[in-house]
Specification:
The protein is mainly β. It folds into two domains: 22-123, Immunoglobulins (Immunoglobulin-like, Sandwich), CATH 2.60.40; 129-230, Immunoglobulins (Immunoglobulin-like, Sandwich). 9% of the residues lie in helices and 47% in strands. The protein contains two helices and 17 strands. It has helices at 2-19, 129-132, and strands at 24-26, 30-37, 43-51, 59-64, 69-73, 83-90, 97-107, 113-123, 135-137, 140-142, 146-149, 156-162, 170-174, 179-183, 193-200, 213-218, 223-230. The strands form four sheets. Strands 9-10-12-15-14 form a five-stranded antiparallel beta sheet, with no helix packed on it. A hairpin with a 4-residue loop joins strand 16 (213-218) and strand 17.
Length: 234
């Protein structure tokens, strides 16, 4: 009987060993960074993973859906009952607006593949007015003093800001006959913004009259000159 019992035990041992598996439990599978300033640099979050099984947990590979999200984790097996971290570092540089990035974790657990997500909203750095509106005519500042006319675009815009205490208006506009200039505001009060649109006729690049400047006249006696360039030929 002793020999038979030992024989049965040897038969059952591989089954028992095979039945042992690692089991994954996360503290969370989604982390929201909220609002992120682009100019503040990288942000990181560590997802906590616990091995709730009865065999060591091995994280074989972690894969990100974007090169802007870098992951770091321990390559050592995680014993049963123990917790480890997977750190995700996100770089918001040259990005803007809301984002969702996916991280896939490959393991030896009963459910081998796991999906993590990071979300957030990237805010652009607020530039000083001198950079947002680098050109100045009296109390009116504007963002560009030249345009390259492209008939493939429905219109182009120039934006203005009144930095003075008195109301500023555009009293008159002169422009080449094949361009339509639309002033979208009647008047700008202190710290108010407005813009104009420039719409080219389809024949402008071929039949230009030779006038290469739009001139805007203000009630402050200022002239704003917008230089025009024809679209590049391809």
């Amino acid at each position: 009987m002793t020999k038979i019992g030992l024989y049965l035990l040897l038969l059952l041992c591989p089954v028992a060993l095979w039945a042992q598996k690692a089991k994954v439990e996360w503290n969370t599978t989604v982390h929201d960074f909220g609002d992120i300033q682009e100019n503040k640099g990288k942000v990181s979050y560590t997802f906590q993973v616990t091995n709730c099984g009865d065999a060591p947990l091995l994280i074989r590979h972690v894969e990100s859906s974007c090169g802007c999200a870098i992951t770091d984790w321990s390559r050592r097996p995680i014993p049963p009952g123990k917790t480890a971290g997977i750190t995700v570092t996100f770089n918001p540089q040259n990005r803007e607006g809301k984002f969702i990035k996916k991280i896939t974790v490959y393991t030896n657990a009963t459910t081998p593949n796991h999906l993590l997500k990071i979300t957030g909203n990237i805010l652009k750095e607020e530039l000083p007015l001198s950079q947002q509106y680098p050109f100045k005519a009296g109390n009116l500042r504007y963002d560009k003093d030249s345009l390259r006319i492209d008939t493939n675009r429905p219109y182009q815009s120039i934006h203005f800001l009144n930095t003075g205490k008195k109301i500023v208006t555009i009293t008159r506009v002169t422009a080449p006959e094949l361009l339509r200039v639309n002033v979208t505001f009647k008047k700008l009060r202190d710290n108010e913004k407005g813009y104009i649109t420039i719409t080219p006729h389809a024949d402008y690049p071929l039949k230009s009259t030779g006038k290469d400047t739009i001139i805007l006249y203000t009630n402050e006696g200022e002239e704003i000159r917008i230089r025009l360039f024809k679209q590049l030929q391809t």
